[in-house]
Specification:
By secondary structure, this protein is an alpha/beta fold. The chain contains twelve helices and ten strands.
Length: 355
């Protein structure tokens, strides 16, 4: 571990997948960390982080603060030098009223920025956005690869994509509207589909892609693909965006090469097939996916992306931050092994349906 860094870093939504890895990255590099949680009494949700602080000999504490309330944010940012605003509502199903997800995302982001600006100590906020703030709402890809210059078309977005886009737009407007002599600056990390090892036994929405292949709840492979990125490399991107003088006022797309699901399946089959996992490798016809989507909300959202590669360029993060992501094979192997280790998938015997 490096020598202890000066200044405390606030990480919002500490119990989340990306936030937890950001906290580990910061602790490994000698930062004192404060994390926000909805209820400090629920220590079981952050016990893995407390253990990491002990392992690295780091300083870590938690405060209660919610995106839908002003209460707790002044205490959260007190004496902090940086804020990583990672928390964002992500319900398991599409809400009936889109404001159930949009309002907490936008208002929560503004609460964090106001508290940071009023703290007198915070110099930079790093916001976790999403590739859905870049490419969503488009009838077809509009470029060979999307970059930081692209924005989603809000009028065509689903509620989650709209919430991420509007929250980031609101953050940039807040920074732009600060009075002269402002001290607070903003950098934005834009992850693509985030996979990687779990720190605690809770499957993230993005890791469900690998889970479905390993447990065969997806018996054939749809004609879909993703720009994959490892959560540990996204945590690295947050630290680099926090530390780099160049990052102020910049967005950074962070993702790996576009990978078709059948290529993901082949990697997983080669890695875990010998252990008894019958990973599907047959392709799922569109009509079958369309029928299944009537009963599966995740597939329903994916229908518009069938056969449509959505590629992103991370060249700016590579050039300005010195960022990189690990190979796809390593990401998939570590994600799969983590799902196995936490008991979310189990090997099975080959049967007629597997042949």
């Amino acid at each position: 571990m490096s020598s202890t860094q000066s200044g405390t870093v606030l990480v919002t939504g500490a119990s989340g997948f990306i936030a937890g890895h950001c906290i580990e990255e910061l602790l490994r590099h000698g930062y004192a960390v404060r994390g926000t949680v909805r209820d400090v009494a629920h220590t079981e949700k952050v016990a893995h982080l407390t253990a990491l602080a002990t392992e690295y000999g780091g300083r870590l504490n938690f405060v209660a603060a919610r995106l839908d309330s002003d209460e707790g944010w002044a205490e959260a940012v007190a004496d902090c030098a940086f804020v990583l605003h990672v928390a964002s509502p992500n319900p398991p199903a599409v809400p009936l009223d889109e404001d159930e997800i949009i309002r907490p995302a936008v208002d929560g982001t503004l609460r964090v920025l106001r508290a940071a600006a009023e703290s007198g100590t915070v110099s930079r906020v790093v916001l976790t956005s999403s590739s859905l703030a870049v490419n969503a709402g488009r009838p077809a890809p509009t470029a060979d690869s999307y970059t930081e210059d692209d924005w989603s078309l809000i009028e065509n977005c689903d509620p989650y994509a709209k919430s991420k886009t509007l929250a980031e737009r609101a953050a940039w407007k807040f920074i732009h509207d600060q009075p002269e002599g402002r001290r607070l600056d903003l950098a934005v990390v834009i992850p693509t589909l985030v996979l990687g090892p779990l720190q605690r036994p809770e499957v993230t929405t993005s890791n469900e892609v690998v889970q479905r292949l390993l447990d065969r709840s997806m018996p054939a492979v749809p004609n879909l693909g993703f720009s994959l990125v490892d959560v540990r490399d996204i945590a690295l991107a947050h630290r680099l965006a926090m530390e780099s003088p160049k990052a102020a006022g910049n967005r950074y797309v962070c993702g790996g090469p576009y990978t078709w699901m059948w290529d993901m399946a082949r990697v997983l089959a080669a890695e875990f097939g010998p252990e008894g996992f019958r990973v599907p490798t047959r392709r799922l016809p569109y009509w079958a996916m369309w029928l299944a989507a009537r009963f599966d909300p995740a597939l329903r959202l994916a229908l518009g992306y069938v056969g449509r590669p959505e590629r992103f360029s991370s060249q700016k993060a590579i050039d300005e931050l010195g960022w990189s992501t690990r190979p796809i094979e390593e990401i998939l192997r570590d994600t799969g092994q983590s799902l196995i280790d936490h008991g979310f998938v189990h090997p099975r015997r080959a049967g007629r349906a597997d042949l």
